[in-house]
Design a protein that fits this description.
It contains eight helices and no strands. With 217 residues, the protein is mainly α. It is globular and about 50 Å long.
Length: 217
């Protein structure tokens, strides 16, 4: 009974989200390709997400979590910020895995999933990199993200703009970099901030590759 009620709520939310549908089929084939990581998540952790939970719901959660993450960073509650940031970052992997393994890919998700990622990294990463590593590096990360997404939508106007492998690697590196900064602030080991700096610089390289060669987000 409860599951049926949640299912109906999910269907209503999905119908509302269709208002944001801005791209048409067909989708590129590689978008629906199930990866080894997807299979790993399916066999280990995706069982905790009931069938009525849609990938778009998880993406919306990521949007909602961002103001709370910013709040914890501003008040310098880095332990809470670390926990919520890690959960929010992992939700990016989970919604993609659910979408591909359960055949629930939507145009809305393809568009707004990377937007949520960029807001998450641009806000949390921007604050932490600016404050604890280097302001210029923070501006560089934010500037590249803005340029990448702006040029991608301009370049692929009227088409789907999915993240490709190099874009996903960039996102993973950014998440690890920000996580190591937060871990440094919680634990206090200076080696962690050095690792974070190296990872962030590497993510900038992948951002440039994404922008200039692979043309993905």
């Amino acid at each position: 009974m409860v599951q049926e009620k949640f299912k109906k709520i999910g269907e209503k939310i999905d119908s509302k989200l269709l208002l944001f549908r801005v791209f048409d089929d067909p989708r590129p084939k590689y978008i629906a390709k199930v990866t080894l990581i997807d299979k790993f998540f399916k066999n280990t952790i995706l069982w905790i997400f009931p069938e009525f939970v849609r990938p778009n719901h998880i993406t919306i959660f990521r949007f909602i979590s961002i103001p709370f993450i910013i709040y914890y960073l501003v008040i310098e509650n880095y332990q809470a910020g670390l926990i919520l940031f890690v959960i929010s970052a992992l939700s990016d992997a989970f919604d993609g895995a659910i979408a591909r393994t359960r055949n629930k890919i939507t145009d809305w998700g393809i568009v707004f999933d990377p937007v949520a990622d960029k807001i998450l990294i641009g806000s949390a990463g921007g604050i932490l990199i600016f404050k604890f590593i280097n302001p210029i590096l923070a501006y560089t990360v934010i500037f590249l993200e803005l340029i990448i997404i702006s040029l991608a939508y301009y370049r692929f106007k009227g088409e789907i703009v999915p993240a490709k492998t190099v874009g996903k690697i960039k996102m993973v590196l950014q998440c690890f970099g920000v996580s190591f900064i937060l871990l440094f602030l919680v634990v206090g080991n200076p080696l962690l901030i050095q690792i974070a700096t190296g990872i962030i610089f590497l993510s900038v390289i992948f951002a440039i590759l994404s922008l200039t060669i692979y043309r993905s987000i």
